[in-house]
């Protein structure tokens, strides 16, 4: 194994609805090394997105330990965790989550508002991120003026704008046709191979999973199989 970027150790996550308990993760051990591209597969409700949320500091486990470069995230307050997340993690979602009244550049600039960068530097960094994902020429366009594939490229540019150490992608090709899905997967592979970006991707698509270095299959919150591609 290489140098670990983050680890989930004996992690449980339980959601409660009244007296009912739903055990989403059960004693999960999961490590991702720096520079890896890992795919998570499994049926709906198996815990894939919960792993992303815990790894990205959006959620906390009920039991177990989460470490990032050796730092125990359980030791951080909510405010410190938000700052850690802004510095270290980029999120890519199936639904893009772009703000319709903002241009591509202004959407990409949003996470940079949490950094000490000045206005000019934020603009430069946002434009660079758009160039990296191949959509610099659409910087001044609004989401409604773009195709689904272009919108997803903007969301990826937003995710990488702060140069995070970890990219978490939740069904990033789920709303795209085959051609655009392949282009987005090509982009993620390029970010991984050329930029050394560590990526964890949730997907139902075996073709998408084949792009990863390692595929993990979950069933009811338990890792059932793991394979290297």
Summarize the structure in words.
This protein has 229 residues and is α/β, with parallel strands linked by helices. The protein has 7 helices and 10 strands. It has helices at residues 48-55, 78-88, 104-109, 119-132, 148-160, 178-195, 206-209; strands at residues 4-17, 20-33, 37-41, 63-68, 71-72, 89-93, 166-170, 198-202, 214-219, 222-228. Helix 4 packs across helix 5 (148-160) and helix 5 packs parallel to helix 6 (178-195).
Map the helices and strands.
Layout: E1 4-17, E2 20-33, E3 37-41, H1 48-55, E4 63-68, E5 71-72, H2 78-88, E6 89-93, H3 104-109, H4 119-132, H5 148-160, E7 166-170, H6 178-195, E8 198-202, H7 206-209, E9 214-219, E10 222-228
Parallel strand pairs: 3-8, 3-9, 6-7, 7-8
Antiparallel strand pairs: 1-2, 1-4, 4-5, 9-10
Give a short synopsis of this structure:
This protein has 229 residues and is an alpha/beta fold. The protein has helices at 48-55, 78-88, 104-109, 119-132, 148-160, 178-195, 206-209; strands spanning 4-17, 20-33, 37-41, 63-68, 71-72, 89-93, 166-170, 198-202, 214-219, 222-228.
């Amino acid at each position: 194994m290489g140098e670990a970027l983050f680890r989930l150790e004996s992690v449980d996550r339980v959601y409660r609805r009244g007296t009912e308990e739903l055990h989403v993760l059960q004693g999960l051990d999961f490590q991702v090394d720096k520079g890896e591209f890992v795919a998570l597969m499994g049926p709906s409700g198996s815990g894939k997105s919960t792993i992303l949320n815990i790894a990205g500091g959006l959620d906390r486990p009920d039991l177990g330990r989460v470490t990032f470069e050796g730092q125990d995230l359980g030791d951080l307050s909510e405010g410190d965790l938000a700052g850690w997340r802004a510095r270290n993690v980029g999120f890519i979602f199936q639904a893009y989550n772009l703000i319709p009244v903002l241009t591509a550049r202004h959407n990409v600039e949003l996470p940079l508002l949490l950094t000490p960068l000045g206005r000019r530097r934020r603009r430069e960094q946002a434009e660079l991120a758009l160039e990296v994902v191949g959509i610099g020429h659409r910087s001044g366009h609004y989401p409604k003026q773009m195709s689904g594939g272009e919108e997803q490229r903007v969301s990826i540019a937003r995710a990488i704008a702060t140069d995070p150490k970890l990219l978490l992608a939740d069904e990033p090709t789920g709303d795209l046709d085959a051609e655009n899905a392949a282009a987005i997967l090509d982009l993620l592979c390029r970010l991984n191979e050329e930029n050394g970006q560590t990526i964890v991707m949730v997907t139902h698509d075996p073709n998408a999973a084949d792009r990863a270095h390692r595929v993990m299959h979950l069933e009811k919150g338990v890792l059932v199989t793991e394979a290297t591609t």
